[in-house]
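Thread: quick sanity check before group meeting

JM: Hey all, I'm pulling together slides for Thursday and realized we never actually wrote out the predicted structure for the chain we discussed last week. Dropping the sequence here so it's in one place. If anyone has concerns about the input, flag it before I start.
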Amino acid sequence: MIDIMIPTYEMMMNPALQALKELGGSATIEELYNKVVEIMGLSENQLEIIHDPERSSHTEVEYRLAWTRSYLKKYGLLENSSRGIWALTTKGRNIDKVNPKTVTRYWREERKKETSTTLEEIDESEKEITWQEELLKTLLSIKPDAFERLTQRLLRESGFTQVQVTGRTGDGGIDGKGIMRLSGLLSFHVIFQCKRYKGSVSVSQVRDFRGAMVGRADKGLLITTGNFTKDAVTEATRDGAPAIDLIDGELLVNKLKELGLGVKTEIIQVEKVLIDKEWLLSV
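JM (edit): ok, ran it. Output follows.
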């Protein structure tokens, strides 16, 4: 067991509020995560620890920050849209700091009011994590060549042409190549690498991939079921070096869902439109 201090969800509450304020009042989950990491000065060692290696690739920091969002939402400081955008409510915009213990106590009291555990409210972010974890676990269980074929299909569905799986020993870790056409006018030769990881892809692995792609493609695409360290992300977009686009586990499963590849979505909707005049006037 690695003895590294990870901030609790309570410790992240005020940094999360500060992050949203600095980001203009709203943010994607990724933007919020990156800003909280910056504000709290979390280290690579802290960010690399996986919450449950047997079930998912989500890090402990990601997992706890999801609970932080949930608690702050329950307390009335945050709201989130179906597109995964988190924003400060009017109450959230008018408060600088909270007492984390007060928020936690309120959340627990609200849970006690539930009449049935089967009807217990689950935050939308937790629902999202649940299906993502299930899909990631499935991806980790399929054979390597099946994962490469899935990646090939994913790229074709996303607009790539001439996608080939070429992975073989001694090829510098390159698993395939393809051509991305932009608006039918421009095209870019892209090579890709697939990593079925439970953990984090390191900066050295990004450098190795770049070394293998130099002179062979316009861009590189690194796809993983895990995530990337902060240094790896920085290296991928380093000035003066060939650009490498990164797709982590969260982005990967959301893309599979969007394209309907191995994921089916059932929508049961009863729509009632209400105008929130108070919210609109407070923006």
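AS: nice. Confidence is low (pLDDT under 50) at residues 115-122. The domain at 13-112+122-136 is CATH 1.10.10 (Arc Repressor Mutant, subunit A).
JM: adding both to the slides.
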